[in-house]
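Hi support team,

I'm opening this ticket because the web form for multi-chain structure prediction keeps timing out on my end. I have pasted the exact lines I submitted so you can reproduce it. The total is 889 residues across two entries, so I didn't expect it to be a heavy job. Is there a limit I'm missing, or should I split the entries? Thanks in advance, R.K.
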Amino acid sequence: MLNRRSLLLASAAAATLPAALKGAAAQTPRDVLVFAKQIDDIITLDPHEAFEYTASEIAANVYQKLVTTPNSNPAQITGELAEKWEVSDNNTTFTFTLRQGPKFASGQPVTAEDVAFSLSRAVLLNKAPAFIINQFGFTKENVAERIRATDARTVVLKTAEATSPSFLLYCLSAAVGSVVEKAAVMARAQGDDLGNGWLKQNSAGSGSYAVRQWKASESAILEANPHAVQAPQVKRIILRHVADPSAQLLGLTKGDYDIARNLGADQIKQLQGNPAYTVQSARKASLLYLSLNQKNPNLARPEVRQAIKLAIDYAGIQKAIVPTTYAVQQAFLPAGLPGALTDTPFQHNIAEAKALMAKAGLADGFEVSFDYSSPAPFSDIAQAVQANLAEIGIRLRMLPGEQRAVITKTRARTHDIAMVRWGSDYFDPHSNAEAFSINTDNSDTARARTLAWRASWEIPELSARTVAALKETDPARRSEMYLQLQKDHQQSSPFVMMLQEIEIAVSRAGVKGFDMGPMNDRHFYTHITKA
Amino acid sequence: MIENTSPRAAVPSGGRARPSAARLRLQALSATAASVPITLFGLALVTFLIGRVVPIDPVLAIVGDRAPQDVVERARLELGLDQPLYVQFWHFLGQILRGDLGRSVMTSNPVTQDIARFFPATFELATFAILIAVLIGVPLGVWAATRQGRWVDQAVRLFCLAGHSLPVFVLGLVSLLLFYATLEIAPGPGRQGLYFEGLVDERTGILTLDALLAGDMPAFRDALWHLAQPAGVLAFFSLAYIARMTRAFMLAELKSEYVTAARAKGLSGLRIVWGHAFRNTAVPLVTVLAMTYAGLLEGAVLTETIFSWPGLGQYLTVSLLNADMNAVLGATLVVGLIYVVLNLLADLLYRLLDPRVK
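Hello R.K., no limit was hit. The queue was backed up. Here is the completed structure from your submission:
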């Protein structure tokens, strides 16, 4: 399939770069920061509805949550609106005491009533990200009773069953946990929409910025919240939709943009080391892996699964094809998320892989289909995988397709091997653990079609361990359980975890302080400064 | 091809009793009117079938990859995807006849609302581009035809060849590099400058017009400045075609006997070319212009991408990449409707331009 962005990039980069790199001519004003970014993914700015990358990022800067995690130490949960919290002995009642001081952009103080309203609103609206909150047993029927403000500074949450505090707190730190100003939102409510129609295009938060305007596929403008606890130095943030990476680069070099967010790997490579620009990166919670369908008898053999994991040249692929935009990651939790395992036990070892194939009685190899998303760099990675597996006799029938077509096939379990991307939904190990290591009903009519189900991998024991890790209330013990789960999963699963995406932002010299995290709701603008 | 599109071809041969002019007009209008619903029906059928045969589960786009299977099945039933294809198509037709193009999965807005939001940007760009293309392309074509075989003609042909064969994204990027990055006489991508972001209230969605309505001349000049480059790139692509066709039509006319007769009568070259020959190229030229304009109105995806122009082309592309079939079907139907309407307008213009058609 023709990928317009890569096509444009490949055709133009060589021609445009030398002249473009000459240097900036114009400057954006000191108190205005302009991002060049593909922002056509925004469909709503309501934090209880939005689940898209850019909207989550805007929510992170416009709203505050009860708790958050600093990017410098993602495992540490710190209070944002909450000054402190207490957990009942049975781990079902969580009492939050709010700080004094945070104010909405309107100047009104943030109250416990606003917090209770916001969390309840996420449940009542029941939009895409609501499941992150609903998994604690909140429903439309019980939310009024289970999420309550008991006084002006105290909010009490009652979960349906004993809950790991770290699990609840990580989930509350997601964009869906954003606190909106009840009075401002309800004053604009239409019917029973709880102000959703208005909040799609506006904001009512206590974060560093407030939404001034959003024009779909054009721009989003944020103004500093004059009442913010931490007043940002840059008074206005403009996110301009610049779809083409070459145009982003041109604008960056001309001084029209301060930070470019979607440059291509070749462009980034050429800018690295240039003192006029700063290249910063953050590992994204997005993995690229192979799913080996266990319905295929050859792929169901443990030796074959292991041989495939050993045959792939992870480091070679990363260095040759995606040196700046992906890193090797071989566990189901992406680096940067709490509890992530960063060991890379599988190295390109053809001799051992061949020995395992022979042990499985398949020394002559076999042929299987291979579905993958066709645009670059996935097509190049797929070809490298094909070459690697050919070395141990596994012949891949290449079936490139549109990403959703590949997902459709894996959901129907009609693939043999598929190369798929998976992004974590929220900042807790369970987000990926549930997907990769729970499958208790392997029937074709199963309700939960986790990634393990899609690989036809029935794992009652591992599923039970995953649920146990979810429920573990001691944070250190919980983290240890996830580490062990990943180690076992790494060796036995029909998933070949290969690469983790890296997000890159290139700033002009003098622009500092853009704080990038592993998920989009953890990219912060508050400390950005311009020289 | 030139002869077929020429009004001369429409002149009936003699020998038979001619139907009355009124009857002919009525027949022509009925034929045109009848072709509109048939064309739209065909378009709806083809786009609907394409939407159903792609190997992507349409439910996936709606409920997402993470949804449990019962939610997927419920959505499938709600969408009527369990029904036979002809029943689904029947429902789809009923829906569009009521003016309802469905709801976009991607934006969760009614598709009509989305199109109303993205179309003005495309309309502005396309209209400006076609104006430039006509104002330059037509005189260029006429000029080349009057100097057939000479250096002017060769230069125009080379110019047209470049405009027609260079991919528009190359033109766009080269234009940005030259006028924006090197010469610094044009702005970067986008519809308005940094200082004007959010200043003009959106009334029509056509930024230049909105700025004028607001009486904000600096914003108007800024919008016009930003419009000039993408419109110029699109116009270059279109004017090459328009100039080439104008030249061909003019050459056919200039070889006609009536031109020889006019020359023999001693009429000035200017009068022969513009007063006689050019007037006779008007009818086929209107068809060319209408179709070129329709092509521009459907949204120039690559130009819109390079210049970050939030138009219909970008909307259609993003919808396609997200398997948002309601949006794709809706936008395709609107594009089809634009073609039909412009074709109809061209037909009506024939009657104004050519007395014989009357």
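A quick check on our side: Residues 1-15 of chain B have pLDDT under 50 and may be disordered. Let us know if the file doesn't open in your viewer.
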